[in-house]
Design brief:
mainly beta, 7-stranded mixed beta sheet, 11 strands, elongated
């Protein structure tokens, strides 16, 4: 069974840091782009950061300079280091990856991990 499993969420005070991890497991032949999305209550899910298989990254403007996305291809894992957290970063964070499990690449989602930043 192919899946993405996230970890690392929690409660932190404003100004603090958290590191999210997302590991892909199962019968996977290749991984293309990977990314992190978030969804706050009453809001649409938004892209936070993404990284290509070659390591190119992009970020939404609100997290630039504070968040860093990285990946370990040997471990099929993507990370999101979040520093200088703000209350407005509070959301459920979802991992996303394009996984090659057969002939084609297909998008997969993690189950989500809650990040709560208190003021």
């Amino acid at each position: 069974q192919v899946q993405l499993v996230e970890s690392g969420g929690g409660l932190v005070q404003a100004g603090g840091s958290l590191r999210l991890s997302c590991a892909a497991s199962g019968r996977i032949f290749s991984i293309n782009g990977m990314g992190w999305y978030r969804q706050a209550p009453g809001k649409q899910r938004e892209l936070v950061a993404a990284i290509t298989s070659g390591g190119s990254t992009n970020y939404t403007d609100s997290v630039k300079g504070r968040f860093t996305i990285s990946r370990d291809n040997a471990k099929n894992t993507v990370y999101l280091q979040m520093n200088s957290l703000k209350p407005e970063d509070t959301a459920v964070y979802y991992c996303n990856a394009d996984l090659g499990t057969g002939k084609y690449l297909s998008p997969y989602w993690g189950q989500g991990t809650q990040v709560t930043v208190s003021s």
